[in-house]
Amino acid sequence: MEIIVISILAIIIGLIIGAFTDWDNPLGPVLILLSILVLGGSTIGYIGSSKTAKFINNKYGTNYTTQDIFWNEKLIMSELKLDDKVIDNSSKLKIELEQK
């Protein structure tokens, strides 16, 4: 949530810089463009974190908030051992072929 507030402040600062300087100075438009990109990306990430938090809380009976998932998703996933569920069957197949 904090990154959204920072992005909005960057947009406002970019608009103020653009209002008091001529648009030949690239600082204002570049700052506005970058802050809009960061705002869009963080908003999409925040919405995704909300959906992930609801899923994890329903499936595992936890009580994670959207901000917990947004800032610490990898740590939470490793605690729940969700990333370790990937099974590599190639080594098992190789051992079975060697035994025959």
Secondary structure: helix percent: over 70%
Q: What separation lies between the terminal Cα atoms?
A: 58 Å
Please count the helical segments. 4
Q: Quick one: how many beta strands? A: 0
Query: How many structural domains are formed by the residues?
Result: 1
Q: What portion of residues belong to β-strands?
A: under 5%
Unreliable segments of 5+ consecutive residues: none
Q: Which secondary-structure class do the elements indicate?
A: mainly alpha
User: What is the overall silhouette?
Assistant: elongated
Average the pLDDT over all residues and give the rounded result. Answer: 75
> What is the N-to-C succession of helices and strands?
HHHH
Radius of gyration (CA) equals: 23 Å
The largest sheet, given as strand count, sense and whether it forms a barrel, is: none
How does this model look, in words?
The protein contains four helices and no strands. With 100 residues, it is mainly alpha-helical. The chain has one domain. The radius of gyration is 23 Å and the shape is elongated. The mean pLDDT is 75.
List keywords for this structure.
single chain; 100 residues; 77% helix
In short:
This protein has helices at 2-20, 27-60, 66-79, 90-99. By secondary structure, it is mainly α.
Secondary structure: elements and pairs:
Elements: H1 2-20, H2 27-60, H3 66-79, H4 90-99
Helix pairs in contact: 1-2, 2-3
